[in-house]
Amino acid sequence: MTSVFSICIVLGSMCVSLLSAEAEITVSGQVGSTAVLPCELQSVGTETPHIRWRIKSKIVFERLGEDTYQAEGYEGRVDVPEEELRKGNCSLVLHNLTLTDEDVYTSYQTVRRTKRSDAVKTKTEEISRVNLSVYGK
Ligand SMILES: *[C@@H]1O[C@H](CO)[C@@H](O)[C@H](O)[C@H]1NC(C)=O
Ligand SMILES: *[C@@H]1O[C@H](CO)[C@@H](O)[C@H](O)[C@H]1NC(C)=O
Ligand SMILES: *[C@@H]1O[C@H](CO)[C@@H](O)[C@H](O)[C@H]1NC(C)=O
Q1: Can you tell me whether residue 32 is helix, strand or coil?
Q2: Residue 2: predicted pLDDT
Q3: Which of 1, 41, 97, 119 registers the highest number of CB atoms within 10 A of its CB?
Q4: Superfamily in which the 24-135 domain is placed by CATH
Q5: pLDDT digits (tens, 9 = 90+) for 11-39
């Protein structure tokens, strides 16, 4: 009895550490190279996905269908390709890495919840968190 209990404790703490290791992904890349920050939608509905990537201080990239937003300093370098997003792949592609890109990037999906007579409600869910580190040449 006691041994079964202690096995559960060991397994439990292993599961917790596995989960927390999975919660934050680490990606590293060299200055000037391209990084892909992984992200996968939990479900691909009929609705056009609304995806947002942010760092602590600001939104870096946002896409809803063909409409996109690129933050200052990321112009022309950042994208979630539309055809990938349609397949449920919300990975962020960041070209020409600079040392200042180093940050923790979090992706969010905004889902519309429409009820018959109600106004449209939206819900924002975190999808993935990526710690990006950039090293010099
Ligand atoms: C997801 O998209 C990224 C960037 O477009 C690509 O590099 C990666 O291979 C894709 N992953 C899958 C599983 O298709
Ligand atoms: C990459 O970034 C550097 C510095 O930010 C810039 O000087 C260079 O022109 C960029 N290269 C490309 C291919 O965009
Ligand atoms: C991100 O990764 C770097 C290098 O592995 C580490 O030093 C840093 O503490 C991490 N940052 C966070 C917020 O986890």
Answers
A1: coil
A2: 47
A3: 97
A4: Immunoglobulins (2.60.40.10)
A5: 444 444 444 445 789 999 999 999 999 99
What is residue 21's three-state secondary structure?
helix
By most ligand atoms within 8 Å of CB, the mutation choice from 91, 94, 127, 128 for ligand 1 is 91
Ordered DSSP codes for 43-99: ---SSPPEEEEE-SSSEEEEEETTEEEE-TT-TTTEE--HHHHHTTB-PEEE-S--G
Q: Is the CB of 104 under 6 A from ligand 3?
A: yes
Q: Distance (Å, rounded) from C-alpha 128 to C-alpha 85?
A: 14
DSSP letters for 106-128 = EEEEEEEE--SSSPPEEEEEEEE
State if pTM tops 0.85.
Answer: no
